[in-house]
Every structure is written in structure tokens, then in C-alpha cells.
Automatic annotation (TrEMBL):
Residue ranges the record marks as coiled coil: 102-129
Keywords, alphabetical: Coiled coil
Bias (Acidic residues) ranges: 1280-1290
UniProt name for this protein: REM-1 domain-containing protein
Length: 1314
């Protein structure tokens, strides 16, 4: 519930008042008993305290002036340093710079650096002394703050007395001023004092524990009077909130008559928003600090929230009001309370309100409430508060009630569809909605049968999301009714090598947990009649529509998924489509034949074209087949290229000379006039002949003119803009270098006759900080690399590094030396990254040294980039290379944790290959320093005998198996449930492509026990430890646990451990020996906790990974899905679906009867009280309000509306029954009583004296508010009698029958007859 967590932390940091502060402050005892007297602390008089404070202030000012002076000196020295560095930089590029001046500048630079170090150390020592002094004086500051807080409390208490008594206030506190003359001045003084006290409590946390909460609340209650301003009341609530620190303070708070003030404040209108806001914050603080999260049973929702029923009913009324500004935060708070104390929410009508909000909106809070109720229905102890079949099903009303709503209802329908997707993607929601023979799911599916409902497309899209069907772009062509065979050709997916992300997504998951859940969804939906409902959409028109074709598409995709995920016997039942075939074979009605034939034709067309238009759907990877059509095209292209090269090498002299002239290279230096195609053909063909190369170099000087074009200082190639059209020149330069290196004359030309490599070296020297020839606009400047083809020189050097002759040339011209120098500069990380990216590392030599130097660079971003590039080299390598793996293992010891994580990620991916895994294990890396980051990689090692032996000898196995047995098993439950939540629910909450991609990247976490059982030695160690026997005993003992959350979590952790062990051939005998599989099957069918059932369902799927496990499950009527070759795929579903999804119904507990009051003896009071009760009935509320208004005008009733006892009866009535916020405000405004501290004490007195004994027979009739009621919906009842009926004289009866026997009262539904 992220939004709830955000709101909790957003409301004034409520959590900062709790136990965390007490721990930080070293608080161990209870609240200190602080005397309210003005006796000096530790014998220190106020005058001594003041002198000490003034002395401390003067010392602080002196130190502050010293720090300012040092800071100004430091700024001057830094400027001198920057100026000297700039001059030295200029000296490197200016040959006329004098050596004497250089020496002086360097000396000045050294002096500035030393001065900076000296000033910095002085500032540090001065700050340390100040900090040490502050810590010494901390106790004095606490005493001062405590005295000030006590003075503020005394001031607030004195402001509540009469003006005469205020004069005699104790003069020892300097904060007390002269007595205010009128109410406004008193109000302002209260606000100022309370704000000052709040400031003290905020700045000094220890004071909160020292100040007695009862005295703070009593002083604040004086500012909550109706005579005070709303700002004063808001400050009083704020003061009380900041005084709360622990559950004990909440207990002291409950002893004060604060509830009456809060009930009245929550009933005020929007003009008092500042006051209501502080009340809401106070309630949230009470919930945060004082709540007991779990009851004695340990089950969820069995805790207690220290709020009275009256306050929470007032809070619910505020959340129920549509136009209230605090509506959303109140709803979120109620959702939090629901998870803590569901019984309180049931008594006060909060569950009914949250269900209504879930159905009606606001839409932005509906996902939060859906998650809340999913948590409620998961446990049997909390879902009993919901009426099965009616309450939670209100979440579906946006879809089921869509008929006749019009297009404006579409947005709400889409939001409701997202909520349904969220609910059905969880075990709690799916199992709950399967109750009553799938009644709720059948209701959703039956909306597809309504012909006039145009918004059915939203429902179809919802099923696409539920089943995780991601249709490709050509599906729109299918929906539009165009022929797929004439639309487009197959995608040439095999021409390009797969990217790392696509390669990762194409790897089949070893544990298909999400697929198993979707298989169950298909079984449930088809059993509920999804295919029949889609068939009914076909029957609406013989010509078809986009909607009916989309229904056909959904049916085709469901059939595809059933064929892929379900066992053959169950998939065959779905594939039969009896109703569609009945329509196609109905010769009696021609339109039925047309509809059925069109549907079958569309399904056949879809199946035929899926493989052709989406070939990757039926392929495990993108490996090109030898007999594919694309392969024939590629073979033909390669043959043409080989023939062209062969013909070019056999070219005669005349043709060769003509080709040289045709390129225009000999005629002009303008490259735009050159014939690029002819030039490329020459380089790739004839010039590969050593004879032609010699002729082009010595005779025609063709190579000289061409190479001069690529010289950096010629500014021809290097100045060309970096656009797509010019990319071909970079490729041409690389090809030219390859061709030159292919012959002896070409290598000699590059080595001795051409300046290309010399100019490259000089260009790098322009950036070399160790060289004195730096220029202002070097060739390899950052701007030129980004905007021109200068970056192409890096690709050309990469071409040289791939050839042994090229490496020799680079070594001779010291290009690698330039690389080494550049790797030490921070300002040109773009150039360093380009060098790393383009160098070829196939030859052992300087290239690998450059890479290793980048991997150990002093800059984190360079190391991160180099590690990522090294990981890509490992990934793209066809064979295991020891040198790349050794470098990657070295990165595991990098000081930056992000580099270590990246290295672990690439190693974990590379170790999918057994060859690489074996090679890595032989290197015996130490991963203990990585902590949790290295655990997945170590568990990879455990899956091989060599790796397990290495880890066992290192002591890792013994250490980890004990940690997993006691702790990590439970942590694994969190990991796997987070994985399932991301994989299943991401589309329901976030439809973005990034969210979908992040969900697809999530992998099933590995389990320690599952990896252990993959080796014989691991099984032996596990047998010696005896852990599995304890697991089996726990499952048998607590398999049907439904109350204790800790036991349920431990049960899940053990089930996952057993499942992962059973997924291996070595671990399955453990399960057979203990005969635990029947127990797991019983838990899957009978556990009252839905999430435990889901865990068992996934565990049974894990057991079906091996052929032996699938055979065992088949004996217990659980059928496993097999591949075409007959091997199990790790998916298993029950043969008898009804037995698995059956959930017994329950009886909802009745609400406990509210406390009853002694009935009034006066007939007038009885009439008023009867009218107040009638206000709760929306049918006769108007009549009751007119009666109350008429009674208030009569003189004999005036005493009633100013009576505190009658005011208490009214407050009790609205605190025990449901009244809307305007009605509550109306009731409170009826009484001419100003609520102040004296009245509040009288109300507390009446709360004790007016309570009826438990065995009295004269108790007032009770009202039971049903959870099913929807706010604003009228209750059924007859109209009340005439007004004159209320005026008939009635004799008071003192009998067993209650006095409330007036005619209007006898006709109101909800009052029980006694």
C-alpha cells in the first residue's frame, strides 16, 4: 500500500514520535515525573543561568567570526590556485612561454595548495571543538528547554482561569506576560504560547518524554473551547499531537475528555478546514503510535486502535462527505485501521464506506483499497466480516452495471476493469470470486452477451491483460478484416544478431510460475463460459464487425494458450468448441452456418499465419535454420560477393587502370566527385592482389592520394559532418586499412611512406597531459568527436588492432602509449569509452592491457563502462575465454558496489553455460565480501559437483545451510512473492512499456536447498543435517494453520523449500521417503488461507518438473503438461478443478450491541430523543428535522436544548448510529451549549451515570447497521405520522416495555420491538 505509506509519512512525520527516538535517546525508563514548581535545577539560579548563556553566546560569536575569516582566506587561495593552473595550461600550448615564469607559477601553485591544506585543517579543528562543547552543554540545553516547556504549560493553565486569578500567577517564569484584557488577547496569547511550546518539543526530543502528557493535554483542552478561535483550536490539537511519544502517552491521553472536542471539530464545515486538518493529523498520530498491530491470536486485523467508536464514526462521516477536502486522507487512514483493527471498522461502518469507495471512486484510490481488501479476504479470521457473495463483489459493479450507462461510463468501466485484473491476478481475489460456482466470474463474462453494450471491447481487453496476451502489431489487421496473406512478408528476424536484452528475454525460464497461474485462469474462465460468451458475440451479425473479430482473436489466443499450457486431455476439451461446430453444421438456419463457418475460417487463418508472421512464437531461439528461405538468399548473396572478389583479383592491366581513373581520385581532391561504388569495389577486390597493390602505390600513386584524404591534419575526412550519409566513408577507411595490411607493400607503405599513423599519434599527443604540445582545438576534441567523422579514426584503429601486422604498427608508432596516457585523464571519458568500445581483443597484447587499465581506473564511471563492455564480450563469445573471465572476476573486488553488482550480473548470466561455469569454479573466486550480492552466483556454483566441493571445503555450505534453515527461508518467501507480484500485477497497475519490460526481466530467485539437491554430495549433506524431516513434521503439524501469521509465513517458506528440492531428481526421493506429497495436496485443497493454497499450487508445479514427479502427481489426479517430445514442462493442474477452488461459506458475525442509556423520564425529552433517532432514517429525516425545529421554538423545550445531559444523549446517539455529516452538524447546532472544559467534564460524568445496567430491561432499542448498505441509498421504511401525533399527551410508563412507544417510532425499520 504505497499511497498509504506516503500519506502516513507526509502528515508531519508522525512516525518520528515513536520508539525509534526513544532508542536513539537511550531512553529506558518511563515518563519522568517533573515538578511544575520553579525551583532552580541543581542549585542554579536563573541569574546564573542567564550569565552562562550570555557568556556562551559571546564565545559562539567569536568562533563564528573566526570561521568566516578562515573561509574568506580559503576562497582567496582557491582563486590563486585556479589562476596558476590556468596559466600552466596555457603554457603547455604556447611555445613562447618563458621557463622562469613557469617556475614562478609552479611555486605559487605549491604555496597555494599548502595554504589551502592549512586553512582547511584549522577550520576542521575549530568545528570539532564547537561540536565537542555543544555535546558537553547538551544537558544544560535540555534543562533550559524543560524549564521553558514547564513555563509554557503554566502560562496556558493560567490563561484558562479568571482574570483575577491570572494576576497571581507565579512570576518565576519569564515567559508569562501581563494578563490579557479580553477574549481576543487571551486567544492570541494561547496561540503564541502553544506555538512556542510546540517549537520546544520539536527541537528537544527528550523534553517530550520528560513533560507529563496529562498536564499538557489539560492545558491544551482549555484552548479547544467553542469560544476560542479555530486557529487556537488547531494549535491545541497540534500541541497534543507533538506531545505523544509512545503507547503510554496514548493511555494517558484517553483519560482526558478529548473525544467530545474531536467529534464536534470533525462535524464543522469547510470554513474550519485548518482545525479539521489538525484533528485528522492527531487521529493519524494516535493510530501510528498507540495501535497494537496484532492481537493475542497473532492474526492480521486482530490488533486494536485506541480510538473510541464515537470518534471513528465522526471520522467515517467526514470520509463519506463527497465535497470534504480531507476525504482522501481520511479514506487512506481508514484503510490502515482496517488492516489493524477490523472489528472496530465493522462496528463503526468503516467497512461499508470503503466498499462503496472501491465501487464508486475516487478512481485513484481504488487500487489501494483493492489491495487492502485482498489482504482481508486472504485470512478466514478477517474475511468473516464480509458477506459472501455481496460485499466484495461490489468492486465488479463498474462492469456488471454498465448496461444503459452510455459512453460517459467508459472511463469508470476501464478503471473497474483494471481493478478486476488486479484482483484476479492474486490468489485471494481469484479464490474468493470462485465461490458460489464461479458466480462472480460468470457475471463478468455474461456482460459479453449483451448485444447493445458497445463498451464490451473494454471487457475483451481486460481478458487480454488477465491472460498476459501481448498481441503483435499485425493483430490489428486481423481485427480490421483484411487478409493476412496479402498484408506483409515475414519479418527477417534472423538477419541481425540478437541484442543482449532480446537474448535475455528469449531464454526459457526454468520455473514457469506465471505460466502455471495463467493455465489455472484459462481453466476457470472456460469453465465459467468464456468461449460460449465469445461465440454469442459471433451470432450478432453474419457479416462480422471489429468487435466480433476481436472476440474471435481472443478465442484464438485462448486456444493457443490452452494448447501450450494445459495437459493434452484438458486442452482437447477446450479445443473442441462444440457450439461453434454446431453453428457451422446447422443446415436448418443459413445464418448459423455462415456465422460458424466464418468463425472457424478466422480461427484457421489465425493459426496458419501465426507461425508465418510471428516466427519467434514457435521457436526456442532465433537460430537460423539451414532450410529456411532467408538462408537461401543469404547463400546467394555470399556467392555473388565471392565471385566479384575473384573476378576483381583477375582484372587485367587496362581494366585496372580504367577503374582507377573512373574513381576520380587521381583527378580531383573533392571527395564528393569520387565514384564511391567503384572505389569500394577496387579496395575490396583488385587491390587485394599484391601486384595491383604495388602498382597502385608506386606507379599510379593512387593509394597516396586516397590516404591523404584520411589524414587528420588534411581536415578533409576529419571535418566531414557526422551524419548517416557519411558513415560509409568510415567503413571505407577501415576496409582500406585491412586491404593494405593484406600485402607486404601495403604494410610497408603504412609503416614508412605514409603519415597517417604519425598524424594519429600527434593528434593524441594534443590531449596528452604528459606532452607539451597541447592545442586549443585538437583533432580529437569532444565537439569534433560528437559532430564530425573524427570518431571514425577509433574504428580504424580497432581494425588495426584485429590484425597482427596492425598491432605491430600500433606498437611501433606508440599508439598504445597514447592510450595509456589518455586513460589517466578524467576530462575525456568519451574518448576513453570509444577506445575501449572499438579495440579488438582477440590478440593477446596491449589491447587487453588497455582494457584492464580501464577496469582499474580511478574513476567509477570508467570502470562501470569497461565492466559492461567486458560483460558484453563474455556474452558474445562463442567459447569460454579464460582471460575475459579472469578480468570479470577481478571486478568482483572493485571498491564500488555498483561495479561489483554489474560483474555479478554478467557472471551469473555467463554461468548458464556449463563450460563457463566449470572454468569459473576452477579459478576459485572468493565472494564472501560481496554479501547478499554474491549469493546467486555462489548458488550457481553449488549446482556443479566441482563447485559444491569447493564451497563445502571453504565452509560456505555449513554456514549457509544453517542461515537458510533459520532465516533465509522466510526471506525467500518475500523474494518469490515480490517476483510473482511484479510478473502478474504489473499490467493491472502500470501499462507502460518500461513496466512491462521490468516485469519480463524479473527472474525466479534460486533456492539454496534446490541447488543443494542437484549434486550427490549436496544430497548427502542434506541427509546428514536432517532438515527435511523437520520440514515434513512442520508441514503435517501446521498445514491448516489459519490464525498465526508467523506460522503461516514459516509454512510458506518450508513449502517453497520442499518444492525446490522436489524439482530435482536428487531431491524427489526425500519427498517420497517422508510421504509428504499427499499432505501438500490436502493443504492445497483445504487450507483456509488462500495464499497458502496458491503456494501449494506453485509447489506442485515445481514437483512436476521431473518425469518421476509428474508420474507421482498423476496418481493423485494432478495432470502435468508435456512437451511434444514427452518431457514435463513444469506445469501441473488439477483434474478436478471444483475440488481445488472450493471455498466453504461462513456466517458473518453480528455487530455487538452499543452501550445503552437509561431512558429519560420526561415526555418532552423522549419526544426530542425520538426525533433525533428518526434523523438517521433517510425516508423520514426531513419530517424529523421539521419536528425538531418546531420543538426548539416552544418554551417548554428550551431547557432540553440547553441541558448538558440531553446534549450527552445526542452525542451518544450520533456516536452509536450512522448519521451523515450534515445531519451530525445539524444535531450539534440544535443545542445552545458551548463546549468547554467544564462541559466536557460534565459529559464524562454523564457517560458514567447514564449507562444502563447490563441486566436492565428498559434499555433503548438498538440499531444494527448492515455492512451491505451503500451511503446515500435510502432505506426502506414507511413515512412517519403527522406532526400532531408527536404532540399527543402520553403517560410515562415505568414497566418492562421501553418508554419509546410513540407512533412514528413504531413504524421505523431498525428499531426492535420489546
Amino acid at each position: 500500500m504505497p499511497a498509504i505509506a506516503q500519506s502516513t509519512s507526509a502528515v508531519d512525520h508522525l512516525g518520528a514520535n515513536g520508539n525509534t527516538q526513544r532508542h536513539e535517546l537511550g531512553y529506558t525508563g518511563g515518563r519522568s515525573a517533573v515538578s511544575m514548581s520553579t525551583t532552580p535545577v541543581n542549585g542554579m539560579s536563573p541569574s546564573d543561568s542567564m550569565s552562562n548563556e550570555s557568556r556562551a553566546d559571546s564565545e559562539d560569536r567569536v568562533k563564528a567570526e573566526q570561521l568566516d575569516a578562515l573561509a574568506s582566506r580559503l576562497d582567496v587561495q582557491k582563486r590563486i590556485k585556479e589562476g596558476a593552473e590556468s596559466m600552466l595550461q596555457f603554457a603547455l600550448t604556447d611555445p613562447n612561454f618563458k621557463d622562469e615564469l613557469r617556475v614562478k607559477v609552479e611555486a605559487e601553485l605549491d604555496r597555494a595548495r599548502k595554504e589551502i591544506e592549512t586553512i582547511t585543517s584549522q577550520m576542521h579543528s575549530l568545528s570539532t571543538k564547537t561540536t565537542r562543547k555543544n555535546s558537553v552543554e547538551e544537558r544544560d540545553d535540555f534543562r533550559t528547554a524543560l524549564n521553558n516547556a514547564i513555563g509554557c504549560i503554566k502560562t496556558l493553565s493560567s490563561l484558562g482561569r479568571s482574570p483575577a486569578s491570572q494576576v497571581s500567577a507565579s512570576p518565576s517564569t519569564s515567559t508569562i506576560k501581563a494578563a490579557p484584557s479580553n477574549e481576543d488577547d487571551v486567544d492570541a496569547a494561547r496561540i503564541e504560547t502553544m506555538n512556542r511550546l510546540v517549537g520546544i518539543l520539536q527541537r528537544n526530543l527528550r523534553v517530550r518524554y520528560a513533560v507529563p502528557i496529562s498536564e499538557v493535554v489539560q492545558a491544551a483542552l482549555l484552548g479547544l473551547s467553542d469560544k476560542c478561535s479555530k486557529q487556537c483550536r488547531a494549535c491545541a490539537y497540534r500541541l497534543i499531537r507533538h506531545a505523544l511519544v509512545d503507547p503510554e502517552s496514548i493511555m494517558r491521553l484517553q483519560e482526558q475528555p478529548l473525544d467530545w472536542y474531536m467529534i464536534k471539530s470533525l462535524a464543522r464545515d469547510s470554513k474550519h478546514a485548518v482545525e479539521k486538518e489538525q484533528v485528522v493529523k492527531l487521529i493519524r498520530a494516535i493510530v501510528e503510535i498507540g495501535s497494537t498491530r496484532r492481537g493475542p491470536s497473532g492474526s492480521s486485523g486482530s490488533g486494536s486502535v485506541p480510538l473510541s467508536d464515537g470518534v471513528l464514526r465522526a471520522f467515517v462521516a467526514t470520509a463519506e462527505q463527497p465535497d470534504d477536502l480531507l476525504k482522501l486522507i481520511c479514506i487512506e487512514t481508514l484503510a490502515e485501521i482496517l488492516l489493524i483493527d477490523i472489528d472496530l471498522m465493522s462496528r463503526t461502518g468503516g467497512i461499508r464506506l470503503l466498499l462503496h469507495v472501491l465501487a464508486e471512486g475516487p478512481l485513484e484510490i481504488a487500487p489501494i483499497l483493492a489491495s487492502t481488501f485482498l489482504h482481508v479476504v486472504d485470512s478466514p479470521s478477517t474475511r468473516v466480516y464480509l458477506h459472501p457473495g455481496t460485499d466484495f463483489e461490489i468492486a465488479l459493479s463498474g462492469v456488471t452495471d454498465a448496461y444503459g450507462k452510455g459512453p460517459e461510463h467508459d472511463e469508470r468501466m476501464r478503471a473497474c476493469a483494471r481493478i478486476i485484473t488486479l484482483l484476479l491476478r492474486t490468489w485471494s481475489g481469484l479464490m474468493y470470486f470462485c465461490m458460489g460456482d464461479l458466480l462472480a466470474i460468470r457475471t463478468i463474462i455474461d456482460t459479453l452477451r449483451i448485444p447493445s453494450l458497445d463498451s464490451r471491447e473494454i471487457i475483451i481487453d481486460m481478458f487480454f491483460d488477465l491472460l498476459d496476451i501481448k498481441p503483435p502489431d499485425w493483430h490489428q489487421t486481423f481485427i480490421d478484416g483484411r487478409r493476412l496473406t496479402m498484408y506483409r512478408r515475414p519479418m527477417p528476424t534472423t538477419d541481425l544478431p540478437p541484442s543482449p536484452s532480446s537474448k535475455k528475454s528469449q531464454e526459457p525460464e526454468s520455473l514457469k510460475l506465471t505460466d502455471q497461474y495463467i493455465a489455472l485462469l484459462i481453466l476457470v474462465f472456460t469453465k465459467a463460459g468464456l468461449l460460449d460468451a465469445l461465440t454469442s458475440m459471433f451470432e450478432e451479425s453474419t457479416t462480422g464487425s471489429n468487435l466480433s473479430r476481436k472476440a474471435t482473436l481472443l478465442m484464438a489466443e485462448v486456444l493457443q494458450l490452452a494448447n501450450k499450457l494445459l495437459p493434452l486431455s484438458q486442452a482437447a476439451k477446450i479445443q473442441s468448441l462444440p457450439r461453434v461446430f454446431d453453428l457451422a453444421s446447422d443446415y436448418g438456419r443459413g445464418e448459423h452456418r455462415i456465422i460458424g463457418s466464418l468463425a472457424l475460417s478466422a480461427l484457421d487463418s489465425f493459426n496458419r499465419n501465426v507461425a508465418r508472421l510471428h516466427p519467434t512464437a514457435n521457436m526456442k531461439n532465433n537460430r537460423p535454420r539451414a532450410n529456411s528461405g532467408e538462408d537461401a538468399v543469404r547463400r546467394g548473396q555470399r556467392q555473388v560477393e565471392q565471385v566479384k572478389i575473384k573476378m576483381g583479383m583477375q582484372m587485367d592491366d587496362r581494366t585496372f587502370q580504367a577503374a582507377l581513373l573512373e574513381t576520380q581520385v587521381m583527378l580531383t581532391k573533392d571527395h564528393t566527385k569520387w565514384n564511391f561504388e567503384t572505389l569500394q569495389d577496387l579496395i575490396e577486390g583488385p587491390l587485394l592482389n599484391p601486384k595491383r597493390m604495388e602498382e597502385a602505390i608506386k606507379v599510379s600513386r593512387f593509394i597516396r592520394r586516397l590516404m591523404s584524404f584520411f589524414h587528420p591534419f588534411s581536415h578533409r575526412f576529419s571535418d566531414m559532418p557526422r551524419v548517416k550519409a557519411n558513415q560509409r566513408w568510415v567503413k571505407l577507411g577501415s576496409t582500406l586499412l585491412t586491404t593494405l595490411l593484406a600485402s607486404t607493400d601495403g604494410k610497408r607503405y603504412l609503416e614508412s611512406e605514409d603519415d597517417f599513423l604519425k598524424q594519429i599519434v600527434k593528434s593524441f599527443a594534443q590531449l596528452d597531459p604528459y606532452n607539451g604540445t597541447m592545442e586549443s582545438d585538437p583533432i580529437f576534441s569532444k565537439a569534433r568527436i560528437q559532430d564530425t567523422l573524427t570518431y571514425g579514426y577509433l574504428e580504424m584503429l580497432g581494425t588495426l588492432s584485429a590484425n597482427e601486422k596492425g598491432v605491430e604498427l600500433m606498437e611501433k608508432f606508440k599508439i598504445f602509449t597514447a592510450f595509456y596516457h589518455l586513460s589517466d585523464t578524467r576530462s575525456r571519458d568519451d574518448l576513453i569509452k570509444g577506445i575501449i568500445q572499438h579495440l579488438d581483443y582477440s590478440i593477446d597484447g596491449h589491447s587487453r592491457i588497455v582494457l584492464s587499465k580501464a577496469l582499474t581506473s580511478c574513476y567509477v564511471h570508467i570502470r562501470t563502462f569497461a565492466t559492461a563492455h567486458l560483460g558484453s564480450l563474455v556474452r558474445e563469445s562463442a567459447t569460454a575465454n579464460a582471460w575475459t573471465l579472469r578480468l570479470l572476476l577481478t571486478q568482483l573486488y572493485d571498491p564500488a558496489m555498483e561495479v561489483c553488482e554489474l560483474a555479478v550480473q554478467f557472471l551469473q548470466e555467463a554461468c548458464e553455460s556449463m563450460e563457463i561455469l566449470r572454468l569459473v569454479v576452477e579459478m576459485q573466486p572468493t565472494l564472501d565480501h560481496l554479501g547478499d550480492i554474491g549469493h546467486p552466483l555462489l548458488m550457481k556454483f553449488m549446482s556443479t559437483p566441482v563447485g559444491f566441493r569447493y564451497l563445502y571445503d571453504a565452509g560456505y555450505i555449513d554456514r549457509e545451510i544453517d542461515m537458510w534453515f533459520h532465516e533465509r527461508n522466510v526471506w525467500y518467501v518475500v523474494q518469490i512473492e515480490v517476483y510473482l507480484a511484479k510478473a502478474l500485477n504489473v499490467s493491472a497497475v502500470d501499462n507502460s512499456a518500461d513496466a512491462a519490460r521490468s516485469a519480463s526481466d524479473v527472474r525466479v530467485p534460486r533456492h539454496f536447498y534446490g541447488e543443494m539437491t542437484k549434486t550427490e554430495l549436496g544430497c548427502q549433506v542434506l541427509q546428514e543435517k536432517g532438515h527435511f524431516a523437520e520440514f515434513a513434521h512442520f508441514i503435517r503439524q501446521h498445514g491448516l494453520e489459519s490464525e498465526d501469521i508467523d506460522l503461516i509465513i514459516k509454512l510458506k517458506s518450508i513449502l517453497w523449500a520442499v518444492g525446490n528440492m522436489g524439482a530435482t531428481e536428487g531431491g524427489l526421493p526425500f519427498l517420497e521417503e517422508e510421504e509428504i506429497i499427499p499432505t501438500i495436496l490436502e493443504i492445497a485443497e483445504k487450507s483456509p488461507v488462500f495464499s497458502v493454497r496458491g503456494t501449494c499450487f506453485f509447489v506442485l508445479g515445481l514437483l512436476s518438473v521431473t518425469p518421476q514427479g509428474a508420474e507421482i502427481l498423476d496418481d493423485y489426479q494432478w495432470e502435468s503438461t508435456l512437451s511434444p517430445a514427452g518431457y514435463p514442462t513444469g506445469l501441473s493442474v488439477p483434474t478436478d478443478l471444483e475440488k481445488f477452488i472450493f471455498v466453504p461459506t461462513w456466517d458473518t458475525p453480528t455487530s455487538s450491541t452499543a452501550s445503552q442509556l437509561i431512558p429519560p423520564t420526561s415526555q418532552n425529552e423522549m419526544e426530542v430523543l425520538t426525533a433525533l433517532h428518526n434523523l438517521a432514517n433517510t425516508v423520514i429525516a426531513n419530517q424529523a428535522s421539521r419536528t425538531l425545529a418546531r420543538l426548539k421554538t416552544r418554551s417548554e423545550y428550551k431547557d432540553i436544548f440547553s441541558s448538558p445531559s440531553m446534549f450527552y444523549r445526542a452525542l451518544h446517539t450520533i456516536s452509536t448510529h450512522r448519521y451523515r455529516l450534515p445531519v451530525r452538524r445539524y444535531v450539534l447546532d440544535l443545542f445552545e451549549i458551548d463546549l468547554d472544559y467544564e462541559v466536557a467534564k460534565q459529559l464524562s460524568h454523564y457517560a458514567e451515570t447514564l449507562q444502563a445496567p447490563d441486566d436492565t430491561s428498559t434499555a433503548a432499542p438498538s440499531r444494527v447497521v448492515s455492512v451491505l448498505g451503500i451511503p446515500g441509498r435510502a432505506r426502506h421504511g414507511s413515512e412517519s405520522g403527522e406532526e400532531d401525533d408527536l404532540e399527543e399527551p402520553q403517560e410515562p410508563t415505568i414497566a418492562a416495555e421501553p418508554v419509546m412507544n410513540l407512533r412514528p417510532m413504531s413504524r421505523i425499520i431498525g428499531f426492535q420491538e420489546k
